[in-house]
Give the backbone structure.
Amino acid sequence: MADDTNPENEGDLQDQIEEVEALSSIYGEEWCVIDEASRIFCIKISNDLEEQKLTACLQIILPHDYPSTSPPIYQINAAWLRGPERTKLANSLEDLYVEHVGESILYLWVEKVREFLVDISLSSETVDQPEKVNMTAEEEEEDDDDDEDIPDFKTLQLNTEQTHLFMDHVDDEELPPIKHGSAITDRRSTFQPHLAPVVTPIQVKMVLGKLYENKKIASATHNIYAYRIYCEDKHSFLQDCEDDGETAAGGRLLHLLQILDVRNVMVVVSRWYGGILLGPDRFKHINNCARNILVEQGYTASMDEATKSGAKTKRPKNKKTK
């Protein structure tokens, strides 16, 4: 890409090439190239324990000025990783970067994640986690028909130019105001939405960190979120989502934001599981309470208009995915 051909970036590009080659050799099939041109990679990490085996997928985007200036951009996908554990792991990775600024750190990050998996596997909290069993049961009950017309957001990619947004204005960012919406309760499961205006991914991270300071929110079985940020200069959207263990929920939530054509906003939906399986109804509740708070905060004109625009939990079968 254009940035990679600049003389000042040649050193970084060469370092990235050598690091990727080394990681590919070390981890073999566990290392996956998602988009080489955009420098997007993924590695499956496990704790290598026969019992209490846990795995995580670490998705990495390498900015054009990594490792000299910017850190890798990453996302950790793991159904069991939520709340305080996710924050603790993120802080560990950031500490490693600070200690090795300007150096290639992907190997250190991968092994830190593996070390974290081992520690959490051996802890008494992980040995007894009924929430994980409940989540699996929900997945088994899910209707296949509901997933046929839902786009696959697992392979959402950001191009290299957009990755700069992750590092812009780090020092002068302010925590956006966070609004909390009305909860929906069904068969002892409770869903509550939270909303914040965001214009950079740094603010997304700040909002999540602030929400997790609330012990009730941090203890939720799932905290599903999605955000859309409009890049004026590129006339495109920076968007992403997170299931937090509720498979496909993040993608459905992001799809709702796309249908409503909202921008510069993130929505988080906390779910506290009540012990009774809801099946596909859980997705309806997640999207309904998210839509409610978007309407309340003025991101859509009214509930009637939102419905007319196509903001429904299930789309008509003849509506094509864009």
Remarks:
- Residues 209 and 266 are 13 Å apart (CA to CA).
